[in-house]
Amino acid sequence: MRGAVIYAPGDVRFENLDDPEIINPTDAIIRTVATCVCGSDLWPYRGAEPIGDPHPMGHEYVGIVEEVGAEVTNVKPGQFVVGSFATSDNTCPNCRNGWQSNCLHREFMSTCQADYVRIPNAHGTLVATDEHPDAEAVPGLLAVSDVMGTGWYAALAAEVKPGSTAVVVGDGAVGLCGVIAAKELGAERIIAMSRHASRQTLALEFGATDIVSERGEEGVARVKDLTGGIGADSVLECVGTAESMRQALHSTRPGGNVGFVGVPHDVRVDGQELFFSHVGLRGGPAPVRAYLPDLIDRVLSGRISPGRVFDLTLPLDQVAEGYKAMDERRSVKALLKP
Amino acid sequence: MRGAVIYAPGDVRFENLDDPEIINPTDAIIRTVATCVCGSDLWPYRGAEPIGDPHPMGHEYVGIVEEVGAEVTNVKPGQFVVGSFATSDNTCPNCRNGWQSNCLHREFMSTCQADYVRIPNAHGTLVATDEHPDAEAVPGLLAVSDVMGTGWYAALAAEVKPGSTAVVVGDGAVGLCGVIAAKELGAERIIAMSRHASRQTLALEFGATDIVSERGEEGVARVKDLTGGIGADSVLECVGTAESMRQALHSTRPGGNVGFVGVPHDVRVDGQELFFSHVGLRGGPAPVRAYLPDLIDRVLSGRISPGRVFDLTLPLDQVAEGYKAMDERRSVKALLKP
Q: CA-to-CA distance for A267 and A243, rounded, in angstroms?
């Protein structure tokens, strides 16, 4: 089969690779129907994370089950399945507590930009749709496997409640899905921080009520202006830099909540500042598995359209162009079709 | 009148001071019935916080109203009142959200180790009891004005729920009150981290089910042993050092919560570590005002006995000995009577 391999910053190649095989009885092999490039893939692509030896890339996927291990009974060959970027057995104590992305047997997916993918913990990770979805539903289902699930978690971690005010820091695919999530969870006012016209438009279409294009302390001041001087009830931090975290914390009202889902890079939170802010803080890799049935339903019923974050569709063999387009911000998110 | 003044580390003096007067129409003057020394008073006493010019001390109090400003209608002269270490108007947006200790007009109390005290924002801060309490109820009501209210907040911030497992880091008065709070909020298992026999005994009497005397990573390992290997649902951090915060974060299960109420000193939380832990973190000065009616009821009905944290009672003029006894850990908490 063929798949993406990263060699160095800016150097992603599409190569022949060994076909994946069942290794453990809880594995499945899927034929990829769609995969994509994640904002977090750009960290190594931009040289902001070490790469080490050349290795495959990709952790978002929907596909058709090809083969299952002996202990996989929840899905069967021929079914269309959605999974999560973090695999889980769905039975360990952390899974039972609702934190499947902290499963004691978790493996992070990392080989999905390829024709076929081995899914570890398939028995606890994959959810099949009742029937094969229409082609137009595929991007939304693909989004659910990571960015929509992550936006959903950001909104839950930020404790978005009906009637509340939410701020979304970051206008990438996760931030935009965070707008969808805040809307679905009943936020009355949703302030999207973005300075890119096309992303502002999409945020407004997804339910944002206000756009703040300023950044840093200027952006914080604008949020305060819009929230009676005290800040927002809930802030979704969807970037992962020290600056975006500071912006998120400072935009939150006393006693409000920040949900942070951008993998933090060089972020340190000052204990005394957090203390006097009364802000609650929770982050992490989203437990997407917990939300899959619900989010799949919302996509298939047409209630939400997170697939719209894909503004570029490429054949899988042009994966390198997907990275390049996102790195240059020509694309919010690139969908890849084998 | 007379009151405590701190001059330098280890140097607290009892001196003649000007009687307090009504300055604003929302002020009240109370005659102190009981006050005390707080663990946080030990930071400057130990030289761990700058002192600057000599200044009065003390932020915990119960007393009899002597005089009220024109806008104070909730209490009247002659009534016995309980307040909070942080004053609040109880009407600003932060107060209405339940964060009275972040009131837009907040003033922190700082002159309470004295015969008389001016209470700013008395209209939103003081709560009167129906009648003058018995002498034996006074220590409990005094505790409510800070340590019991703070332990309560720690348990709420750590999201203690019926049937859950809670860990309390810190065996000072706040930590011990945190044990009471965790018990009241329904925790099934309460692990108190303490290595002092008398404090262990009190923690057990307050409802702790287990004592862990180890500290640091050894203490964390013991907590993990007691919690099926994953850590506790809720951890109350009642110290405020980098070590105690680390111990708290590492003792919490994935997706659990840390409530931190020890004023952080040189605490920095690593964003990436917090991210992958999925732990929720919330701290701050407790919004004691929000809990006063409930906690006063619990004390007066005899349901809780937080007054037992006072293991030393001194006449106010021996305030310096109160500091010394606590500094040398001869006393958990010293009550002072004018």
A: 8
Minimum CA–CA partner of B268 in chain A: A270
Q: How far is A98 from chain B (nearest CA, A)?
A: 8
d(CA B44, CA B41): 6
DSSP A267: -
Q: Quote the CA–CA distance of B268 and B266 in Å, as a whole number.
A: 7
| Sign, Cα dihedral of B128, B185, B182, B300 | positive
Give me the domains of chain B, ranges plus CATH numbers.
2-146+287-337 (3.90.180.10), 151-283 (3.40.50.720)
Query: At which residue do the structure tokens 């203690």 appear?
Result: B160
Report the C-alpha gap between A260 and A286 in whole angstroms.
10
Q: How many C-beta neighbours within 10 Å does residue B261 have?
A: 31
3-state secondary structure of A72: coil
| Cβ <8 Å between B284 and A270 | no
- Supply the pLDDT for residue A173: 96
Residue percentage of chain B with pLDDT more than 90: 99
Residue B252, strand partner residues: B232
Model confidence at A20, pLDDT cuts 50, 70, 90, reads very high
pLDDT at A148: 98
- Residue A44 CA from chain centroid, whole number: 17
Please name which of B165, B328, B169 lies closest in space to residue B262, comparing C-alpha atoms: B169
Write out A87-111 in H/E/C secondary structure.
CCCCCCHHHHCCCHHHCCCCCECCC
ipTM score for this prediction = 0.96
The answer to whether A162 contacts chain B (CB < 8 Å) is no
Structure tokens at A338: 């084998």
Alpha carbon distance A178, A155 (integer Å): 6
Measured distance CA(B18)–CA(B210) in Å, rounded: 49
